[in-house]
Amino acid sequence: MNPRQSYLKAERNRVLKAKEDARREGREVLTPRAAMDLFEKSPEAIRKAVRNGKVTAVFDLWVTDKKVSMIDLRSALNYWGDEESDLDDRLDLMRENGLTFVYGHSDLWLTFNVLHPVPLVKVRDGQGVG
Question: Is 85 in contact with 91 (CB distance < 8 Å)?
Answer without folding.
Answer: no
